[in-house]
Each structure stands twice: as structure tokens, then as C-alpha cells.
Amino acid sequence: MYKNIEKKTKLLLKDQVEYQEGQVVSKTLVQNDYVSVTVFSFDKGEEISTHASGGDAMVTVLDGTGRFTVGGEIFILTEGETLIMPKDVPHAVYGEEQFKMLLTVSF
């Protein structure tokens, strides 16, 4: 079930979180045993350090440019680009500039 978001309303996902200086901001839209859907904003230079997920994670950049390190390999993504980060593979996310992303994790 979706939460924290209007239903039956046309919207832009990138407008669901604002940039905040020196911060990573997140808004969870779905969280259950099968899937997690979260929108994030990263200020330039902010990051989520290396970690692994218990499910396959798909990120789509909604605005700006982000750097994703997956299993030691670096990927630079810009608006509209998507990357799959496999379950149990260490990954990190860094704001090359301010950017927003949609994260969907399937368990």
C-alpha cells in the first residue's frame, strides 16, 4: 500500500522530496515484506556509504547526477537513467551534484 503520497493525482516523483543543504532526504512510498519504494534527494557531496541490500535494488535518477559504486565498479547516472544493484552486492551512492532518485527494492 502506498503512503506519504497523494492518490488519484498526477504528480512528479522528483517533487516529492526537496533538496536540503548538507543532507540526504528520503520519503518512503511503500514498505512491506516484498517491496520498498523510496524517493531520495542528495545534496552535492552527500552520500550513503557502502552497504548491501537484502533484495535487488533498482535506482532511477529523477534529477541531477549521481555516482553509484556497485561491487567496486563505478556508474555515473543522470536524469532518466536506471541501474540495477544486485542483492547482497556492496554498493554506495554519492551526489556528484545535487540529485534525486527513485529506489525500488524487491525482496
Q: Could you report the average pLDDT, rounded to the nearest whole number? A: 97
Query: Helical region count?
Result: 0
By CATH's scheme, which homologous superfamily applies?
Jelly Rolls
Q: What shape does the CA trace take?
A: globular
Low-pLDDT segments, ≥5 res: none
Strand content bin = over 45%
CATH level-1 class: Mainly Beta
C-alpha termini separation: 16 Å
Estimated helix fraction: under 10%
3D structure, described in words:
The protein is mainly β and 107 residues long. Helix content is 0%, strand content 58%. Strands 1, 2, 3, 4, 5, 6 and 7 form a seven-stranded antiparallel sheet that branches. A hairpin with a 3-residue loop joins strand 1 (24-31) and strand 2. The radius of gyration is 13 Å and the shape is globular.
Q: Which short descriptors sum up this protein?
A:
107 residues; mainly beta; Jelly Rolls; 7 strands; 58% strand; globular
In short:
With 107 residues, this protein is mainly β. It is 0% helix and 58% strand.
What is the topological layout?
Layout: E1 24-31, E2 35-42, E3 47-51, E4 56-70, E5 73-78, E6 82-85, E7 91-106
Antiparallel strand pairs: 1-2, 2-7, 3-7, 4-5, 4-6, 4-7
